[in-house]
Amino acid sequence: MISKLRSANTIFFHLRKTLSLVWAASRYWTVAWMILLLVQGLIPAASISLTPRAINALVSVTGSGISAANVQKVIVPVGLMAGIMLVGEVLNSAAEWIRTAQAELVQDYITGLIQKQSVAVDYGFYECSEYNDKLDRAREGASGRSLALLENTGRLLQNTVTLFAMAAILAPYGFGLPITLVVSAFPAFYVLTYLNKIQYQWSQRTTTDRRWLAYYDYLLTNNATAAEVRLFDYADYFQSSYHNLRRRLRHEQFHLLKLQTLGRFVATIIALIISGGAIAWIGRQVLLGILSLGDLALFFQAFSQGQSIVRDLLNNLGQIYRNSLFLGNLFEFLQIQPKIIDPLNPVPVPSTPKKGIRFRQVTFRYPGSEEPVLNNFNLTLPAGKIVAIVGDNGAGKSTLIKLLCRFYDPQSGSIELDGIDLRNFSVKAFRRLITVLFQSPIPYNTTAGENIGLGDISAASNYSEIQAAAKASGIHDKIDRLPLGYNAMLGKLFPEGTDLSGGQWQRLALARAFFRRAQIIILDEPTSAMDPWAEHDWLERFRTLASDRTAVVITHRFTLAMRADIIHVMRAGQIVESGTHDELLAQSGFYAQSWKDQMESSASAIVTERNSLTK
Ligand SMILES: Nc1ncnc2c1ncn2[C@@H]1O[C@H](COP(=O)(O)OP(=O)(O)OP(=O)(O)O)[C@@H](O)[C@H]1O
Known about the structure:
By secondary structure, this protein is of the alpha/beta class. 65% of the residues lie in helices and 9% in strands. The chain is built from 21 helices and ten strands. The strands form two sheets. Strands 6-7-8-3-9-10 form a six-stranded mixed beta sheet, sandwiched between helices. Strands 2-1-4-5 form a four-stranded antiparallel beta sheet, with no helix packed on it. A hairpin with a 2-residue loop joins strand 4 and strand 5 (420-421). The chain is elongated and about 120 Å long. Keywords: ATP-binding, Membrane, Nucleotide-binding, Transmembrane, Transmembrane helix.
């Protein structure tokens, strides 16, 4: 009982939220829709109440020939019925129109809310499967369902109006009839509610499976994976994984479908038996001469329509229940609170860092992980210097970047800028201070100019600065040679787009970084797609960008690291060696050994290449 009350309360809560959501998205359409619903609710009863008059008038003139007097007798009731039918049709068309317009508005509104929330939540959510499930569930027909929920509720009200009108029409024939009408629909209601519940449970249980399906589909149909899928002949492998999973889900769906069909069939048979009994009773009354033929027609219409209305009404209740369950997912998603938030009174961010950044006794483990990646970790990134961090795979270098960008906060210890804990700054204001050049920068499918302008959207119309940034990063000549120059579309997703090479995209990202003019520059393997000559040229340009700024370079390339002012060697979450290139070589430690290995392998690669050329 308590759980039933709780679920009714939840439905009411979701209904209220949905109503305010639809109201916010399309208030005028909603008012028009409500008025229309009420009027539509009265149409069937009005039509039925005219039936005995029309039938009795027709019976009275049956067989007495066509004459003006006869036509006069039937024209008014029949004409009224026709008029009501016409009004009903007009209202139906108007309702369809309103529904379509409302659906568009609500869809845009809810999509906007989901997008806003997707950006507001912490970056860490995207590294968590549970969050991805939540996002998928929220998206799952959210806009369609909110309107459906409202429509179900509207139809529930409309059907209630119609049902009361029908009951008023049937009551003179005995109060048992309206009661029989309602009782006959109970089996259908029970079946529908039960089926809606198991359908919802199935949907919740298979969210991750359906994300797997979307993932396999992505692997098979996306341009980012197209090359590897062909080269390594993955297609059959992924396709069979897709089909196996689909087969299982399809079987489960078929099973549900079987249950639904069987349940509906049994419920319909029960309803038919009940209405058969009621019709037999009224037929008896007609045979006994207690009721007229017109009464029989009215009863038949009112009872069969009433029955379908009650079924519809209970169906609406079932749908309300189901849609409110699904919409619960949307509301749950919209309620997720980010953990990385601004403090109550943010401290102003220094426009130019004086001392630099310091990791002080930082301990950090990823949510859900037992092992900390960083344990009492200390590191200083002095202002105005280029610091390189080298280390083996999994040492924790990218984790440092995530902490520095405040994608995560440490569990203990602090990260400070000029002695102030980063948590004291506004997140946005602090991030404005940073630019990150990722190993694989995003190839934005937009114009070359906009690709650079994205570095600082507030100044994106400053064409000369965009050009200066492109020149400084060494991508200007390439852009200049494109037929539309800075207005040329980049990427291959849209018509007339030109693709760039990996190294050229990296240069474009550098131009974006120049354009951003941020004080702290973070680079994660920024030259991985460049040849040694391009890397050398790029480094010179980077030095220009980084002059007087604080830069952190994360790299496996010693030729890049050696140009930094300070090099830190990181292993298993700890800094194990620090110094300039020469100092580290002199220490004969991990750095010196790795440097030797890398130089030897480069030298042997050159020898092999030279030998193969001379053969
Ligand atoms: N989102 C995450 N959730 C849980 N553990 C993670 C996550 N990201 C990274 N790790 C773990 O944290 C450790 C450090 O990873 P990190 O990516 O920082 O290493 P890295 O030094 O950048 O490595 P590489 O040179 O290979 O890029 C690894 O053991 C990794 O498995």
